[in-house]
Specification:
Elements (H helix, E strand, L loop, with lengths): L5 E6 L2 H8 L5 H15 L4 E7 L10 H11 L5 E3 L11 H13 L3 E3 L4 E2 L4 H34 L12 E5 L6 E5 L1 H15 L2 E2 L5 E2 L3 H10 L13 H8 L7 E4 L2 E8 L2 E8 L6 E4 L8 H14 L18 E3 L7 E3 L5 E3 L10 E2 H64 L5 H52 L6 H11 E7 L14 E6 L5
Helix pairs in contact: 4-5, 6-9, 7-8, 10-11, 11-12
């Protein structure tokens, strides 16, 4: 018989974070204590506690909530205990609808210290939906107030970002609210060195100066054992460019230079960062001291502009057929194309020791490896594996049929005990005993049917996938060389391959062989 279980859902709000900053204690721990005391008082059998540590606006940005909703949809919980319904969803109308329907159709209670919401009760449902609506309205109000406050603080020259920039530390503004910056001598010296190398170059033995790019500056800093910003493993080109392009280092502060834009495609919302219009951006003199002078800073901007090429749109034509398919066998990063003719494929991680190869050689080996795998897979498929798999599925179908017949018999017996009670054949005690026994047996049989049906469905899906992948791979090998562009090739590869690990320990000899690397294929087979 199914044991009735409840779970706790804990999440911080923006107000909680502000309260914690003023020393009011850790929110989740306080809420957990309150809700566990409530569960003990009302005899709720709590078997799981979910803690959401991210403050996301939408369900898509909250992985713990996604997991909870999936389990609620499957009917695993009798009720979910929260501090208030506002903790569940502050997203848009779609998110609120998903939340309300999931709890309604699964008949799952929402329990708060103030009220128990039954989504199948008309009045509770209205109250619940109104609570979500008001929560969304409150979220927008708080967000507008925060944005206005940050814009106002920026105009006063204060630093409003939560994370410190390289070269500075965050300090409280004296005799006022808010934050400003104070240079860290060691890091500030590195910032000046970056600007000097980029604007003046590196001195050569003959006394001349050679220009140094962002990638070369990163290599110089790595070789000098200078720690990179935050917890990055090495000085990336993007980190150097961000420092060179940030007016913070000439004593400026900025706000709203970029914003997030939502796009809806095929029913899926994606987020994209775009530059804000110039009239919406705020760039003013800050309260902090500059690290570099304006002449050096703007000289760096002129050099960067002269090195710019035409911007590549995020939906520009794909050049690498193996993009997202070929991974570094050492560090796991996606392999990329490099070189004037994009003819080399390598790991972008500067600290990784994986050796690059010619793209054409790697692509040819991928196709050869895929052909070898297909030949081997077909041989295995044509052996006893197919027979054994079908035998297992047939056995499960028979077991389901047998369990369903047993459930029908138990249901008839359950219906009959009421007649026997009315006829006086059963007394009350015998009726209750028989009722409990049949209820338990029916629940066990239903659970058995559900589990057998689930595993049979998985088996059938695996069998279908195994059968379908053979013609897919054959078709790919037949038409690959005739496909018109890299995007078409990439789509077909991703349809049959999870990923490929590439490992190369030593450079290829001048006269070959050039394929002295190892490829490990992971075809898209169903998981067991």
């Amino acid at each position: 018989m199914r044991i009735i279980s409840y779970c706790l859902y804990l999440r911080k709000s923006r107000a909680d974070m502000e309260a914690e900053a003023h020393g009011e204690g850790e929110t989740l721990a306080r809420h957990e204590k309150i809700l566990l005391e409530l569960a003990k008082k009302r005899n709720y059998n709590v078997t799981q506690i979910y803690r959401e540590i991210v403050s996301g606006e939408t369900i898509a940005a909250r992985p713990v909530m996604q997991q909870l909703l999936q389990e609620v949809e499957e009917g695993l919980w009798e009720g979910v205990i929260v501090m208030e319904v506002e903790r569940l969803a502050r997203g848009d109308t779609i998110d609120q609808g998903i939340m309300a329907q999931t709890f309604k159709y699964s008949e799952t209670l929402i329990i708060t210290p103030m009220k128990i919401y039954d989504p199948n009760n008309e009045y509770d449902e209205e109250y619940f939906e109104f609570g979500l609506f008001m929560s969304r309205r409150e979220y927008k109000t708080i967000n507008r107030r925060l944005q206005r406050g940050r814009a106002s603080s920026t105009k006063e020259g204060k630093y409003t970002c939560g994370r410190k920039p390289y070269g500075y530390k965050r300090v409280h503004v004296q005799n006022d609210k808010g934050w400003t910056l104070e240079p860290i001598k060691e890091e500030a010296d590195i910032v000046r060195l970056i600007f000097k190398l980029y604007t003046e170059g590196k001195e050569q033995p003959d006394g001349s100066f050679r220009p140094v790019g962002c990638g070369a500056i990163g290599s110089i800093l790595d070789k000098a054992k200078i720690p990179p910003p935050q917890t990055a493993p090495y000085w990336a080109e993007s980190s150097i460019r961000n420092i060179l392009g940030n007016p913070l280092y000439i004593g400026k502060v900025r706000w709203n230079t970029s914003k997030t834009k939502k796009r809806l495609k095929d029913g899926i919302i994606s987020l994209e960062r775009i530059a804000s219009p110039p009239e919406e951006q705020i760039i003013v003199n800050g309260l902090h001291k500059a690290i570099v002078d304006e002449e050096t800073f703007y000289k760096a901007q002129d050099i960067m502009k002269s090195h710019e090429t035409a911007p590549v749109h995020r939906r520009a034509e794909l050049r690498n057929p193996l993009a997202g398919v070929l991974r570094c066998g050492k560090c796991g990063r996606a392999m990329v194309l490099r070189g004037l003719k994009a003819d080399n494929i390598l790991c972008p991680n500067k600290l990784c020791k994986n050796v690059m190869s010619k793209y054409s050689v790697v692509e040819e080996r991928v196709l050869q490896s895929l052909q070898k795998w297909l030949d081997s897979y077909q041989l295995n498929w044509e052996s006893d594996a197919l027979y054994n798999e079908e035998l297992q599925m047939s056995s499960k179908r028979k077991a389901i049929s047998k369990a369903q017949k047993e459930l029908e018999t138990l249901t008839k017996q359950f219906e009959n005990i009421h007649n026997l009670l009315e006829q006086g054949i059963y007394d009350t005690d015998m009726f209750l005993e028989r009722n409990r026994f049949l209820t338990e047996r029916m629940n066990e049989t239903k659970a058995e049917i559900k589990e057998l049906s689930r595993t049979l469905s998985d088996d059938e899906e695996r069998a279908a996938s195994r059968i379908n992948i053979i013609p897919k791979v054959k078709h790919l090998l037949d038409v690959y060389s005739e496909l018109p562009d890299a995007q078409s090739k990439n789509d077909m590869l991703k349809d049959v391959i999870e990923h490929i690990d590439y490992t190369k320990e030593k450079p290829s000899p001048r006269n070959g062989p050039y394929d002295n690397f190892e490829l490990v294929l992971y075809p898209k087979l169903p998981r067991k």
